[in-house]
Design a protein that fits this description.
This is SacI homology domain-containing protein. The chain is of the alpha+beta class. It folds into three domains: 272 residues, no CATH class; 344 residues, no CATH class; 259 residues, no CATH class. Helices cover 32% and strands 20% of the residues. The strands form five sheets. Strands 5, 6, 7, 8, 9, 10, 11, 12, 15, 16, 17, 18 and 19 form a 13-stranded mixed β-sheet that branches. It is globular and about 115 Å long.
Length: 976
Amino acid sequence: MPSLARKLLICAAVDGLVVQPLATKGQGQGQRTPSPVKIKYGDATVSSLPRDYSPDTSKPNSSFEAFGVVGLFTVSRLSYLITITGRQQVAQIRGFPVYVVTDVALTPCTSRNEAESAVANTATKLRRASAERIIDDSDSESEIDAPLNSGGDDAEDPGALSDRETPGDGLAARPGNQRRSSIAEDVIKRRGSYGRFAQRWFSRTGWVLDQKRNPGINTIEANQAGDSAGNTKKGDTDKELSDKVVKEKVDPPPAPSAGETMMPKLLRFAHIWLGTSRSFFFSYDLDITRSLAGQSAIAATVTLPLHQTADPTFFWNQNLLKPFHGTGDASLLLPLMQGFVGQRTFVVDRHPPQIDSQEDSLEMNNLTPPVESEMHFPPLERASIDLRASEKKFVITIMSRRSTRRAGLRYLRRGIDESGFTANYVETEQILSASTWEPASKIFSFVQVRGSIPLFFTQSPYSLKPIPVLQHSPDANFRAFKKHFEHMGKAYGSIQLVNLVEKHGVEAIIGNEYEKAVKKLNEQKAEGSQPVAFEWFDFHSACRGMKFENVSLLLDTLGRKIEETGSTVERDGQLVRKQNGVLRTNCMDCLDRTNVCQSSFGKFMLNLQLKEEGFDMTAQIDQENSWFNTLWADNGDAISKQYASTAAMKGDYTRTRKRDYRGMVNDLGLSLTRFYNGMVNDYFSQAAIDFFLGNVSSMVFDEFEATMMSKDPGVSMSKMREQAIETSQKIAIEDDKEDFIGGWTLLSPHTSDTVKSVPIEEVVLLLTDTALYLCRFDWKLDKVSSFERVDLAHVVSIKVGTYITSTISPAEADESKNIGIVVTYEPGKFDIKRTNTRSLSSTSGEPDQASGKKGVVEGPTVAPAAVSGILNQGILNAITGKSQAQPPRKIALKALQSRTAVSDAKDVKRMAENEYINVIATEIERLVFRNQPLPEDSEPRKSIIEKGDIISLAEAKKSTGILEQWGHSIKKLVWA
């Protein structure tokens, strides 16, 4: 048996499944380079391919070969190993290749039969694809393994990431070879998901069949293949399985969790997202998660493995690789980066020929025009091209790294989180080097970043042009805003902000707040420190009428700043110069307008760098530089697909520097596709992304099943609840003589004095020595919207028990977790309700004894202290001298779930629901007895706490209407 240091047990449930590194040519000399690996299961083998791999068709069908391990994930009782089965080389840096992942295999690790079947089935597909490649050598320009599901499994899924286009393959895309589809085809069939959704919706068998298609495992297809080979009927197979279960005396499995029921959808998403989306990149030899300057900063740690030097901000499979940590072999850990990598070669001339001699010059030098130039790998082994003495061949590489912090999709991840990280944050590096990468030549690196406006805000996906809504208090916004620029200052130095949103209209709401926050930040900076520069360029106004060339006006303003920022330069492995700042560009989505401007900044810097090398780009024959524009357009499409599920808008201008009506029509189609994806597809995709990144546990699928949405893990609800309790205490408890006992957050019906009401919302409960306060809190604005005060002397009973408000999902119908409390009281003189209104109104002319004001008298305000008084009937009776008995009223409260997807991911433990409610009930009872003294000769007081169902499961089922059930079922069918 091999040494334990060379083996790793993937899952205890599968005896014999191991991961074993292999020694291959060109590797194993240093500790940085991940080596290929072998994954065994009995006689089934999964091995990683060396770079000089040639397929061996003599091996049995029980093994397949892969290019590396992505990681392992577990949902409930199900575990899956993800391996790379397809890759394509997209660039070569310093002689080392950079690959894009083109396909992955998902191998189940829970049962022996499933693992063996999945390995055999994957091997069959790979060998079939390999045989087809050998027959057809016309597509062998780069090393690529055919997809597992070459029939187009990604098209089966209605998810947003189902496009087969290749944004990451900048080198493979050549003008003239790309088929231009019609707008209708682009929107409805290729780029839009609703075409496939409609096809599946109206198909009588589509939904059933699609549920059986699990990309990467395909155990059903494997069984079918085995049936056809051995002429085994399905009934016989079922009988064999049932006999095996009886012989082994296997207990029936427990009911599947929500995560297990959604596993087919999750596997399809994982296969598309990690594999066929072509959005993940890796290198065996280079740390592509860091820029040139970042790599030089950690040069002293060159002996460390890649996963230890990789920047966690851009290390996307870090969480998936955790099961492999501590195995004693770092070669298993291969970092993946999401974003874009593209490369082009071009030739420049110090003394370019005249325009009229262009054809002769090209013929004499055996050169193709630069627009058609492309890179073949590896360039170091390519025969040299006969260049004129005044000419030089360069390589330009664009590498965009998407951040794992606040990662996600368009409308579900906006703005900033509490840690100062923003949505759609992308670091884009433009590298210029000689084609041979010789050490004596200079390597230039220019870094830009993009990211959402660093404020708390949201936008509704149910509008084509949604209004941004600011969230939380100004103080909370500025704290996060300040953290964001502290992070950026440490990483890049000086910062130049480029704000492209509209100065008028709906976007101005967030733009004005952004500008105010920058001014406040600069005012608080220490004397002598460099302020954050802010440039507001209204892109839509400046480029109105499709005049996108007016972006040059922005360059006129920022040109000097870009020159001062400069770029990083390396020669002979040493930094000659380091970029001393960064441009941070944003629009609302940080996609379309941002990419147009960033490409202009990149072109401006390229001209400066070539000028430093003695070349004048404006004098070259190919002044349009279509190779540069195409590269940046590919970059924009890639980032846009990863964030908004479609290619970038305004891409026609980025590619051709021209804008016409066809581009406008195409952008309209892309807008409609984004609109649909934002309403339907993105919710599950966002939950899956958070799960794979480790931001949430697999419980996120239980939460998703109940609401078809998931919570934002970037916002700490525990901190928000603590702040809500503190704010409510300051506002609601006006009498300083009251001693504050405690505060809790619970759920309560939106309508007062009822047990069941839709919606049910999170509230704050405060308890003092004399009163109970129910505060309804505006969680988006961090303010108290209203509160009720109940004198403890008026409490007559407390009921604790099962409190089920919905039976739509198993989690909501769990009697052990849905516990509540109902406090019944008789309204009295000092029981009041106060509401924070936004309009001047009055319901009574009598003065409010508690506040000295009249009726409802507060006008529009955002100050927490501005809470108006609404006098209830009890206090009006006291004022007018009337006396009228009031019926008892109720305050219904329900415990929050003690375990959530976010808390589990962060190992945050909370008190169980029943314990939580019992503590509150006991404390209220103790203080009620204190406020209701009995005569000395009376009998001992009986407990006012009653145990019983508030709303039982049977009652909840009866009250759940058919329309409600149908509505949720249809929504689940569409969303999940």
